[in-house]
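Sequence in, structure out.
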Amino acid sequence: MVMVEKEQHLKMRMEHIRFGKEELERRRKSPVHIPAEHVAAQLKDHYHVYIVDPRLGFNQRTFRFWINYRALGEEMEYSGKQLGHRHTVEAVIYIHQGHGYSVIDGVKYLWEAGDLICVPVFAWHRHHNESQEDLIYFAATTGPFSMATGIALYEEENYPEYWVFAQQGEEAMKTLIPGGAEAPPGGKVDLDQSRWKPQGSRSNGQPTSAEIYFDQLNFAQEEEKRRRAGKVLVKSKDLKFQPTPMGRVAYGVDTKLGFHVKVLGTLFAEIPPGKRSGAHRHIYEETNYIIAGEGYSIIEDEKYQWKKGDTLVIPVFAWHQHFNTGKETARFLVHTNRPCMESTGYIHTQQGEPADYE
């Protein structure tokens, strides 16, 4: 145990007490608007540009947002041509331009501009551009969450020296569970947990200690099945925009739609010319990419002008509302960590003025 003085204990306690008030200030100071020009300038020097990331000063803790660009004829498989890569990170990819296919956990998925790809955690995946134009895609990935909790693993085909599990054999390459095919030296552990399943029925309707522990033993095995059973592809033509108090919304990646995500969710929102979204605030992170249109947003009484290609980062629990001042329908790509906040019980959304979209 580390021995510290009384003053140090008091200092650590005061950090807890001050955190909430100081967090409000961190939210206030965090960048909100990223112009398209800033991203385009960086793409001249590098094909992979982080747009929103806590390492860039954003007060967004659970996911980052970035763009990947491949010029016509340029090799895009930086991670490898056979396996690609895998990671203990949720990833939702939006195809902005181009068409092609992805091989994810051995399954081929065809995609085109406007589609979404939801990559299962720790599934090998690689992407191929088959179009005769530059490929551009955006991705939201939960690397910050995984890194903060100490579970981040990135295994790249081209960097086997950094593999943690894949080098341990064929089964280790196939599993979607880190360490799912690994046994301690001597092979004294039976990786099949079914032998520990309790027999008999409950006497009073309450689970026994043995049953609760078996669920723990069996969780990873069942989780792998859930990851493989979850939906992967969202075709743009299948999106259904429907009315809500916030306006016309089409949910893309959501647990209620059959996707196996625990942290990240994705939707699209539209605002007709001359109309507005609703106003609301919520205890979850949100990043908006402007796919089309121009206008402005009011975020905690501050006005931000935006246009196609810009990005907005909404501070947690900040009132926000969007206005379309252009001649075409504005469309937003919206990533949030709402599933994470729902699972932890912290979700809280308040609706203000309803949308005007008729």
